[in-house]
Amino acid sequence: MATVREIFTDKLRETRETIARLTRLADELSESLAFLEGCRSCDEGQHQRECGGCGRSDHEVPLLVDGIAKR
Q: E strand or H helix at 29, and its extent?
């Protein structure tokens, strides 16, 4: 049973790490979506690389949005 206990302990640790990682990702996605809600007023003529630099938002550009804007 010691081997089973060790396997379960390892799997529990891995599961908790995965949950923590996915929770951080969910938070980042939520922040990005909240930021992008303010982008509904952008003109169609504006380019993606201008995102966050248009001066229409008082908030810092989330990393996910910034990464996409730089592509």
A: helix 2-37
Token pair 């599961």 is found at: 15
Cα distances (angstroms) measured from residue 1 to each of 4, 17, 71:
5, 24, 52
Residues found in the chain: 71
Q: At which residue do the structure tokens 């303010």 appear? A: 38
pTM listed for this prediction = 0.69
- Residue 55, by phi and psi: left (phi above 0), alpha (psi -120 to 50) or beta? left
Where do the structural domains in the chain lie, given as residue ranges? Answer: 2-69
First to last CA, the chain: 52
Closest CA to 27 of 52, 62, 59: 62
Average pLDDT value over all residues in the chain: 82
